[in-house]
UniProtKB/TrEMBL annotation:
Pathway assignment: Nucleotide-sugar biosynthesis; GDP-alpha-D-mannose biosynthesis; GDP-alpha-D-mannose from alpha-D-mannose 1-phosphate (GTP route): step 1/1
Family stated for the protein in its record: Belongs to the transferase hexapeptide repeat family.
Pfam families xref list: GMPPB_C, NTP_transferase
Record domain Nucleotidyl transferase: where: 3-204
SUPFAM superfamilies according to UniProt: Nucleotide-diphospho-sugar transferases
Keywords, comma-separated and alphabetical: GTP-binding, Nucleotide-binding, Nucleotidyltransferase, Transferase
Originating organism: Oncorhynchus kisutch
CDD domains: M1P_guanylylT_A_like_N (cd06428)
Descriptive protein name: GDP-mannose pyrophosphorylase Aa
Domain Mannose-1-phosphate guanyltransferase C-terminal: 287-406
Length: 407
């Protein structure tokens, strides 16, 4: 049997997602109309012999997460549990801490997935690849091709082109190493815990040698899969890369959530045409799209124009308002004839290997032009223009703004 573990991180991580992560943990933010994590869960539930999905993170158990888990269990008919780390243990430390839970029932292999990626999740293909490559106990990383410049923002993989064995692994190198990058989706066998365990023991020994104690246990348990495990396993005949031709993107910032929505909406034409139905109805009376996701209970007035945006539940777009490249927060209101607009951060469409840039909020002391985000319960008056701005929750604006964070 198989299992899957989704690394959902914790509260201090979603900083590039503010102010949206104030209201909902980032892994539950809706992408293409459903919580980000649901795409992972749906893909896992389709894999034959998948028995359980474990969410590992350091969020305090909360109502949204519990509600999501309950409804996903019912919808996908699979066991889902949340395992909470006592502190951020890193991408390898969390799974090591919960190894007994992961291994209970005797899975022969398990997937590990970063929550903050969007993908077609070619999990059956990874299983086949594992059977065909290396020994049965080899570990598989899903990889994709990036362009030379952007590859350095990711984990870079040098492979043996005949066997697909990973020969070198360097996380975010400072000079070009390879254009094959790590997608944050892995297939492991239980043997991975021997390798993580060896790092744990070495960390403990190092601390004894340094005579430090204090926060010792945590320091030994904090382990990163990428730097601590993959770099060491490369070239040992154990680690292989499955290069996917399918779509993949990271979801680090709110801007990348709009891009990820577009990738999933394109996929819905094949997989979930019913999820696109709502869009067709709305298209008859308004000019909505392309790439628009509308939450439940949203009110849209006459002559409204929306494109490349996510409108969260309870929002109101009054008559003739125009919303482009935005995320409109829960219960926010945009007045008549107002224009709320952002700058898209999409990858270069002329470069097939371009990825979305993980833009920083500020460049040269100025806010980087980006999508406009309205936090929850924001009111934009009629006939104003809000451009490339981030508006914190519960603001009642009274004029136009451009390139600002409105606190
Ligand atoms: P940067 O944010 O640019 O460093 O990119 P990255 O892809 O290297 O991110 P990182 O390794 O921090 O996170 C990858 C995934 O692992 C995300 O889905 C995180 O939510 C998750 N993650 C990161 N740290 C932890 C951790 O300490 N515990 C758990 N459970 N998950 C984590």
């Amino acid at each position: 049997m198989l299992k899957a573990v989704i690394l959902i991180g914790g509260p201090q991580k979603g900083t590039r997602f503010r102010p949206l992560s104030f209201e909902v943990p980032k892994p539950l933010f809706p992408v293409a109309g459903v919580p980000m994590l649901q795409h992972h869960i749906e893909a896992c539930a389709k894999v034959p012999n998948m028995k359980e999905i474990l969410l590992v993170g350091f969020y305090q158990p909360n109502e949204e997460l519990t509600r999501f888990i309950c409804s996903a269990q019912q919808e996908f008919k699979i066991l889902i549990r949340y395992l909470q780390e006592y502190a951020a243990l890193g991408t390898g430390g969390g799974i090591y801490h919960f190894r007994d839970q992961i291994l209970s029932g005797g899975p022969e292999a398990f997937f590990i997935m970063n929550a903050d990626v969007c993908s077609e999740f070619p999990l059956p293909e990874m299983l086949n690849f594992q059977k065909e490559h290396g020994e049965p106990s080899s570990f598989v990383i899903m990889g994709t091709t990036a362009n030379r410049k952007q590859s350095m923002n990711y984990g870079c993989i040098v492979e043996n082109q005949q066997t697909n064995e990973v020969l070198h692994y360097v996380e975010k190198p400072s000079t070009f190493v390879s254009d094959i990058i790590n997608c944050g989706i892995y297939l492991f066998t239980p043997e991975i815990f021997q390798h993580i365990g060896a790092v744990f023991q070495k960390n403990q020994q190092d601390m004894l040698d340094e005579q430090t104690n204090g926060n010792g246990w945590h320091r030994a348990e904090a382990i990163r899969l990428e730097q601590d495990i993959f770099t060491a396993l490369a070239g040992q005949g154990k680690l292989y890369v499955y290069k996917t031709p399918a779509f993949w993107s990271q979801i680090k910032s709110a801007g990348s959530a709009i891009y990820a929505s577009r990738l999933y909406l394109n996929q819905y034409h094949k997989t979930h045409p019913e999820r696109l139905f709502v869009h067709t109805i709305l298209l008859l009376t308004h000019t909505l799209g392309p790439n628009v996701s509308i939450g439940t209970g949203v009110t849209i007035g006459a002559g409204v124009r929306v494109r490349e945006s996510i409108i969260l539940h309870g929002a109101t777009l009054q008559d003739h308002s125009c919303v482009l490249n935005c995320i409109v927060g829960w219960d926010s209101t945009i007045g008549k004839w107002a224009r709320v607009e952002g700058t898209p951060s999409d990858p270069n469409p002329n470069d097939p290997y371009a990825k979305i840039d993980s833009e920083t909020l500020f460049r040269d002391g100025k806010l980087t032009p980006s999508i406009t985000i309205l936090g929850c319960n924001v009111t934009i008056p009629s006939e104003v223009i809000i451009l490339n701005s981030i508006v914190l929750p519960h603001k009642d604006l009274n004029r136009s703004f451009k390139n600002q964070i409105i606190l």
